[in-house]
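Students often ask what a 'structure token' actually looks like in practice. Rather than answer in the abstract, let us consider BAAT/Acyl-CoA thioester hydrolase C-terminal domain-containing protein, a protein of 199 residues. Its sequence is given first.
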Amino acid sequence: MLLDKYFRESEGEFEYGNYRKGADDLHSVVSCLYKENYDVTAIVGHSKGGDVVTLYASIYDDVHLVINVSGRFDLEKGIEERIGEGSISRINKQGYLDVKDKSGNIRYRVTKESLMERLNTDMRAASISIARNADNLPSSFRFFTVHGSADETIPVEDAYEFAKHISNHKLQVIEGANHNYTTHRKELTDAVVDFITSN
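Now compare that with the structural description of the same chain:
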């Protein structure tokens, strides 16, 4: 698939935070696809990717269907659960924190700058911006949030917050699904495909 080509040829390493950069990178990919005469019907993002596609929709108006799978509405939450208890104060003190895997290998570095970028990324403002820009968006614009009711990483309440603030929004909660939809992948796939094909 063409997208695979772009991702294989892309450079860089995983960076903590950098939601706006993710939205801008996605826009570069979408722009390249349009230049190649592809029709980009939808963008789909899971977890952090759900936030990236939401930011994308608040900035750009060139994709009609946006699908947020288990995105986090309040980015001030979940930080220490992800990178360790007391990590925020350690980052503030030494300027960074290396996140390691179970073998002690460094997976990625969280800098004070990247932490602050996450804390300053306002998904409520982005969601409201989508509603405010509704007149500039194509009439076919639709936003879809899917979330698992048993998600312990990002609570399902976050999905209801997206639904409350975004216009042309559809919400589907998959009962019993966890953050990675481990035993509910068919329900997730069916929901996403149905949303795209029905629009």
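One point worth highlighting: The radius of gyration is 17 Å. Ask yourself how you might have guessed this from the sequence alone, and why that guess would often be unreliable.
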